Amino acid sequence: MDMDKAGVRAMIVAGLGCRKGSTAEDILSALDAACAAARISRESIAALATGEIKREEPGILELAETLRLPLHIVNDDALLQAEPRTGTVSRHSLAKTLASSLSEAAALAVAGDRSEILVPRLIANGATCALAATKEKA
Predict the structure, then answer these.
(1) What pLDDT digit, counting tens, does each position of 78-97 carry?
(2) Domain total in the chain
(3) How many Å apart are CA 131 and CA 32, to the nearest integer?
(4) Which CATH number fits the domain that encloses residue 89?
(5) 93-133 residue pLDDT tens
(6) Which domain range does residue 104 map to?
(7) HSE (CB half, 13 Å, CA atoms) of 28?
(8) Quick check: 18 and 128 in contact, CB under 8 A?
(9) Could you give the CA distance from residue 87 to residue 120 in angstroms, rounded to a whole number?
């Protein structure tokens, strides 16, 4: 977890989505693009998150293992609960999950009720990544 100037810890969660069959490298490129946009290192990420629809996606599973990060599978109810706080609309995501952005909603759901989008959904090589952060008192 990163500390901000006020001594408050920020937990950063990367929400992931991808086309079926995307490789871990494809998904990593989206994660790295989101980290670059946030001006943080990949090591700042505390956890990965995705929706139930991507539970068995080999590229996401491989990436979590490679980065040694916990992978949270978010159910549709939790995605819908986080959905009002998302900022991006993907027709594909809406059709498959009823959430306007799988990656944003998954990141927000895992980061908690007080979390906010740090980096909206970015697309790279058929994969998406959004970063959400929650702040907790140190």
Answers:
(1) 988 888 878 776 555 555 55
(2) 1
(3) 11
(4) 3.30.420.180
(5) 555 556 657 899 999 999 998 899 999 999 999 999 999 99
(6) 2-137
(7) 15
(8) yes
(9) 7
